[in-house]
Write a structure and sequence with these properties.
The complex is a heterodimer of chains A (356) and B (198). Chain A has 356 residues and is α+β, with helices and mostly antiparallel strands. Chain A has eight helices and 14 strands. Chain A has a five-stranded antiparallel beta sheet, covered by helices on one side. A three-stranded antiparallel beta sheet of chain A has the order 8-9-10, covered by helices on one side. Chain B has 198 residues and is an alpha+beta fold. Helix content of chain B is 32%, strand content 13%. Chain B is built from four helices and seven strands; from the N terminus they run E-E-E-E-E-E-H-E-H-H-H. Chain B has helices at residues 99-108, 121-130, 141-154, 168-197; strands spanning 21-25, 32-37, 75-76, 83-84, 89-92, 95-98, 117-119. In chain B, strand 3 and strand 4 (83-84) form a beta hairpin. The radius of gyration of chain B is 29 Å and the shape is flat. The chains are: A alpha+beta (356), B alpha+beta (198). At the A-B interface, strand 4, strand 6, strand 7, strand 8 and strand 9 of A face strand 2, strand 7 and helix 2 of B. Strand 7 (41-48) of chain A pairs antiparallel with strand 7 (117-119) of chain B.
Chain lengths: 356, 198
Amino acid sequence: MKKQIGDYKFLAGSTRIGGTLWEGPDHLLYLERPGFALAFSETFKRLDYKNIQCISYAPTRTGRWTTAWISTLLLGAAFGGSFTEALPGRVTLWVVAGVSGLGLLIHLLKGPTCLCRVQTAVQVLQLMPLRRLRPTQRFVQRLAELCRLHQGEASLEMVAPPPLRPATSPDLAGLHSPVSVVGVIRTGLLLLLVAGALLLIRPFAPQPAVFAVTIVAEVAAGILLLSGLARNWRARLPGMLKGILCGANLHSLLTLLAGFSLWVYGTLTVAQSHVSQGKIMVANQEWEVFRWLCQAGFAELEWAMWLLLGMGGVNLILGLLGLPIAWRLEASTASAPPALARQPQVSTSDPAAPHE
Amino acid sequence: MAAALCVFCNRALPMRRIGQEFEATCTGCRRTSRNVLLPALLGLNGGGPPTLPDETPPGPGEAACFYSSTRRATKECQHCGVLMSDVWAAQWGQTTVCLKCLEHLRQKGSDLQFRESLVLWDNVALSLALVPLSLVFWFMAVISAPSAVLVSLWHWNSPRSMVTPRRWRLVLAILLGLLQIAGGVGLVLALWFKGRRA
């Protein structure tokens, strides 16, 4: 990656998802690259050095959680690999352990994780490229130098506990209020509960309507929860709810894969029955597979029925755990008073300096 | 007056000193963050509210604004060269441009200084070429492989990212797309010949 393009000098970030930060002659350029695996667009955000009011950063717990997860995977794979006798299984588990070990090493070398924000009079911008503490400290030092250069030096002590007044909080651009999307999450969790209940009923009620409604509810819940999670990623949602949403999305993905496998299995079974009857299946194959899947019970598909029961149980647990948190969050954000800010007083020896 | 906000819960932080980095603990979430307060927070950056634009009509012999003839021209657009009043002028960094040029330059995206957003067609094409390689969506190759080739060729000269300006993604997308098309055609032909022999 080039370190200088035109007037812009590279400050931080990478070519991957997140974006890069560039030092311009009179402004900071934040090149945002949203996307999944590959970025599909770039958004250019410019912040004048003279308008930046505050630069904040803080270490987060994400790094510790990531270390815990990768370590668990590494230990699990290594443990499994040591006790597996079959060669393919042992090789697979040791490869997983090796990859996890490498990932853990890279993660530890990168250092602790953090959040960094830049505040102006009209927005608070979270800088996504800055997720590690060491590059963030270097960036903050450089940006503060540039801002001081454009705003002039001033060292003013804040004195006396100032009176409380409602904060004239700037528009938090890029930070969605949790209340704006908590309704989406709540609806998604409700649908997850409905889908869970239907999945539990399904093995004992082989009806096409139950099957169809289950699919619709599961897909709708997946979409709503994914949307809620994506829109809330930068909001300060409770960690527990975030975890439940991640789990629910992963579970939806697994359900989708399980559904796909069931469909393939159903197609093969129907085709086999046709071949055994000496028929060639041409038209309405999908409808026939659907009907077969609707009517299948414990006798035909015992493993799939147990799978459905397990999935329904997971759905119910996630929904029952998540809903009270979502309701509590909705209630607390709806009734919360406006934030209070302390009005600072300026003490300076220069009588010409402006006072609030 | 504005206040520094907590990184985690957006509550106002107790402020200490302008110009120096300091550690502050939020009274709401009890988490600690490091902050650098700058003079702009107290309005000491010489900013202040913007002055009202000059609304006086042009006198005899004075140039009128190109966009609003009832206003006196005070500036010249550095992009298209028209004379314009303060109302129609925009200061973009070191450059003064008229609002129409600003909008045009921002949307066109060819000039890095004015660029607003950009679609990364090279990544779009590469994704289209990679989609069928996943085991789940292999059947998408019928549409995505020709699309990858077409998108790559169509956007060969489109503005590219300033971070990754090279064309290797477009080339890779074309190669993968052509390989998939060739594979698909080969498969169909093989099945056809097999059917004829049978």
